[in-house]
Amino acid sequence: MAFTLVALFLLAFLVVPVLTVVTVAFQDRASGSFTLAHFGDFLSNDLFRTSFLNSLYVSLMSVVVASLIALPLAYFTTRFEFRGAILVQTLGVLPLIMPPFAGAVAMGLLFSRTGTVNLLLGDWLDINIPFMEGLNGVIFVQSVHYFPFILLNLVASLKNIDRAMEESAQNLGSHGFRLFRRIVLPLAMPGYVAGASLVFIKVFDDLATPLLLNVREMLAPQAYLRITSVGLEDPIGYVISVVLILFSVLSLWVSSLALRGKDYATVQRGGGGLARRRMSRGQAVLAYAVIILILMLVLAPHFGLFLLSIATIWSFAPLPDGYTLAHYTRVFAESSQYITNTLIYAGLAGLIDVILGTTIAYLVLRTKLAGARWLDYLAMSALAVPGLVLGIGYLRTFFGVTLPGGTSLAAFWGIIVLALAVRRLPYALRACTAAMQQISASLEEAAENLGARRLSVVRRIVLPLMAGGLAAGFITSFATAAVELSATLMLVQSSNDAPLAYGLYVFMQSPAGRGAGAALGIVAVVIVGLSTLLSHLVAERGGGRKSA
Amino acid sequence: MRSKLEQAGQPMIGRRSLCALVPLIAGAAQAQTAGASGKVSVVTSFSNDVTGPFKRAFEAAHPGVTLDIQNRNTTAGVRFVQETRANNAVDLFWASAPDAFEVLKTAGLLEVYRPNAQGIPERIGPYTINDPEGYVTGFAASGYGIMWNERYTRANRLPDPKEWSDLAKPVYHDHVIITAPSRSGTTHLTLETILQGEGWEKGWGTVKGFSGNLRQITERSFGVPDAVNSGQVGIGIVIDFFAFSAQGAGFPVKFVYPSVTTVVPANIAIVKNPPNLAGAKAFIDFLLSTQGQEILLEPTIRRLPVNPAVYAKAPAGYPNPFTGSIGMPSLRFDVVESGKRYAVVDALYDQTIGTNLDSLKRATKAIGDVETRLARRDNSAARALLAEARSLISAMPITEAEASSDAVTGAFSGRAGSPRQAELEQRWSAFAREKYQAAAAKAAEAAKAAG
To answer: Is the ipTM of this complex over 0.85?
Structure first.
């Protein structure tokens, strides 16, 4: 029953719309008959081979760098008595919210060859560091942008580890780094793998960052550039899209191998997570220094964005020429409806994603349904579908459907919510799966033995135990949906129904709108930041009650 | 797609234009009975800074009418109109890119309307302002040129550029940025103007000359002024209003029209079966009225009006294409030829320059370094080697005749019997890479010869 519903949802809002668009990849252009010749062209083309290898390299390196950023943040804030742990975890989500265009300009002003950092370095030391050039630039920006996937999932996972495991190990004489390496990290693997695979697939499929850095020799930008050429129906763009989808599913399967054959579930939930240790004075200073350094690095773009939002003119200079609040006045006068719309759309999308994510995770991990794993792969393939393709597919599939009011279904704002939900489902799904992997099925069996029905077991036992993972899933889906643009730009049909990302786009198309765009970006960051803090608090309280 | 520029030449009477006559007649009848009222939906790629003043003035002039602006980038806009044709809810399509209108027109998605505005000439430079068949109306003009950030050029001690060929000089290496012609209809027209103004071979030489000095090729036309405004790149090849509106917003940028340039109209068109035909017509009439044309002069918009009389109200120094100060009135622009090879020229640029930018830059840098040394101490053997290296860079995989031949153009429209687009692209890209490597080797020889 649940299986059918989820399958139908994915079929209607992912598979069918995408298929209506990508069939071009398999068609002979002259006759329209089936052909695989375009895939042959793809394989025999040097550019695409290089692009594929570049994408692979960038994705792997981004996972490594993102892990280096996320691990200390997660470790210190969960393992030790750490003042401001929630604040750190909230700030750690902000990099996910890189408002389109505005974020790019801010990054450029700070890190480009003539950005603040390099202008200052040039003055003082006469050196220039190419942060934002070539493949290494892509790795830098992607890691800073997407490490929160690892952070969020790892934190959720670490919190779920049974304290007894650690205590037993200590009783047996293990401590320090060995304890972490042999006991804590392995038990937290589901969260880490969930986060790392998301980073890998997302970076592999991402086109915004390479395009921002004008790196074209990667697969996703190649697909995008070909699909968006006005008036040309070049099948190769769609071929690349299909390749991206297949490869994403493949890498997901590989990452599931990493967890196969091991049991991560722990039965006991006595202590509510790992024991928190007090740090010695020296350790504390060191830990805070590391964390502040990392936060300064990953939040620099937002600082740049803030400066841009209060700047008069900022051009070829370390800092703006002057400061003003006029951009905020303009934003609040012209675009307050964007803010409410965004909260509604991204909130609903996040909710749908958590519900679908939990259902799919439950079907995969708790039932023996043959097709369940395919649902998982199917939902994840949404990561590889370019927003534009999904947008076109929605128009093609739903424009002819009229609502009772006489308007088209595609013109209804709810369709934007569905598009956002489908595009961000993979994030929630991975978080929910990781959370459920850590719950022992024997808890549910026990409840069932005591006479509880399936549904009430889920409601009373499974969901409360998953609270942290659910929050992580909701936050990633919500935060990233709040700044989604490509599908939105296709589907928005009236500026009254438009979300914030659309308003940003409109501002950022003119020189005079740059400051206002940045101001709107800051508004987005603040809103999402506050919502994140709120869901952390809710999840924390849920956790507290469960351990009481 | 291949006939993008036919609008500017002799009218092409075809099946589609005959079909279009029927709605034209029906539309005329409708316009007489209904005054403008209600909502007028516009899909546009223009920013709020451009649409805002027009919306306010239009709504003030027509009480009871609201202009509903839907901002979309050009690709998304064209796609939207295409995908929603069955139940169209859009009245007007309003954008710069001439190619976007050509795609819509070819697909039979536009409505004919000939506004009765007075005092607008037929041509601007080599182009007709309006589509001869009446589908598309030009409301403003824009020219291509060179924009630079004064702080950047001062800090890097770069002289002010004047001509396209200036940008090929070694001093500008790695300081220039452009949008790919396949991403921007106006960059394409600039490229085509250079190719026709200087000839196929010499023209590509010029294009590859300045392309060897590019820092980046962006995919978004606004990416170029963005980078120049913030000083990330010093010099951008842009359409004029990007520079003028940046100046209007206070950025330290300057702009020049090179002598080989082109002035192209920015357009508006009524979408087929518009829900509010009377309103759509009223807005086009408003754009072309004296009041509408004067709005173009506002500091944040700064486009060139198509009504020559309006320039009397323009601030001093405002460029005027009708006085011959910009554009090439003498250029004989072959629109048929250009239309035929449209996609081919884009793909040639993407394959020989876009995907091979690194090796092109390496070769150009090597040549530039030797040249700088030769300026101090000349050496004829080295000069000869440099000339060879340059001709290797300029070499194109296909001739002008091949570029518009059926065999090549067919690959881009998917005609049976033609090679596939991807096959040709692979060939062209490999050709260019080999030549650039050879050019770099020659430059290295020249460096040795120069001592």
So the answer is: no
